[in-house]
Amino acid sequence: MAASKKIFLSLIACILLFIGINTFYQSKKEYNSHYHFVITKIDITPTKSLEFYDVTAKVRLWNFHPFHTHNIKVNDLLYKPIHSESVYIYRNDASGKYSTLVEKLDSNGIFPSNRF
What percent of the chain has pLDDT over 70? Predict the structure, then answer.
């Protein structure tokens, strides 16, 4: 095998290893996180997934994939308990309380929670 081919394959292996480790790290970090905020802005990505913003910053979800077909709107409440495999989206009811469950997003399961 030529030296340039070995270098190329080593580079590909390193990139794939980095992607795997980063995905595991981000998934674990999100699993251990708690979210509870009102969505102030929603962006639709080129792949038709949704990106949420709270008052301070964009919130990136690694384990959950909300798409434009989900019934999620600005001013909905995004809630994820710590160590939960689900994200809940609530909407204001007539009394002004976030009591109406609009969507429940389950984890994509790339790394099962029992691995953390």
Answer: 92
